[in-house]
Amino acid sequence: MYIDKTYPFEPVSCPNFHLLNSCLGENSLAIHYNDIYLPSIRQLNDIIARYPNFQNSSLDELIFNNEHITIKEKDQLHHLASKVYNHHVFFASLNNQTCNNVNLPIINEITKWFGSLELFKQKFISVAKATNNGFVYLVCDDHLRLSIFVTDFCHTPIPYNLYPLMCIDMWEHSYYLTFLTNKDAYINNFLNVLNWEYINNEFLECQKCIL
């Protein structure tokens, strides 16, 4: 997904938060993007600015090769790289425009592995409701199998050789301001504004890498 993007890292372009107000809350999204996501990118860039040998590494590489990193800020670097990665995927997963997903290959794959799009959504909602302080992903493995994968805290699917297609942030800062404790409403609304074109493109990129 971000394999070609290196320092200085930049945020993904976000959808129009005002147009997503009725689904996810404009203020919630703006605070999440401006006060959590963007500062994490700045902090990550500040660290990497001091270490030229990391400046040609993608987020994937920084996360995957973490155990071989020996700088004193190793833990902070890994935390920030993972946090930025998760939020990259989360915000890229959102779309404020209606997307016709009927004929997209990813829908066929979801049907293949989950039975139907509706059954996938039911499973995703169940898993996300049970998740606290983590991210719930739709991922593809190196056999092109789709599954739902949960990461706790700021961990990512990258060390498990899983290719992220989309994710929802299940930290309280993502939903509490708008939904309080109603996680059901937050998750359902999230699934109603998915950027299917992006998700499909990610799957096709994964397919290219594997086939």
Describe the structure.
By secondary structure, the protein is mainly alpha-helical. 50% of the residues lie in helices and 10% in strands. It contains nine helices and three strands, in the order ααααααβββααα. The chain has helices spanning 21-24, 26-49, 59-64, 74-92, 105-114, 117-129, 176-179, 183-192, 196-210; strands at 134-140, 146-152, 163-169. Strands 2-1-3 form a three-stranded antiparallel β-sheet. The longest helix has 24 residues, at 26-49. The chain is globular and about 45 Å long. The two termini are 16 Å apart. The mean pLDDT is 93.
Low-confidence stretches: none
Portion in strands: 5-15%
CA-to-CA gap between the ends? 16 Å
Per DSSP E runs of 2 or more residues, the count of β-strands stands at: 3
Instruction: Please tell me the overall pLDDT.
Output: 93
Name the overall outline: globular
**C-alpha Rg (nearest Å):** 17 Å
* SS class: mainly alpha
- Spell out the helices and strands N to C: HHHHHHEEEHHH
Please give a quick description of this structure.
The chain has 211 residues and is mainly alpha-helical.
How do the strands and helices of this protein lay out in sequence?
Layout: H1 21-24, H2 26-49, H3 59-64, H4 74-92, H5 105-114, H6 117-129, E1 134-140, E2 146-152, E3 163-169, H7 176-179, H8 183-192, H9 196-210
Antiparallel strand pairs: 1-2, 1-3
Helix pairs in contact: 2-4, 5-6, 6-8
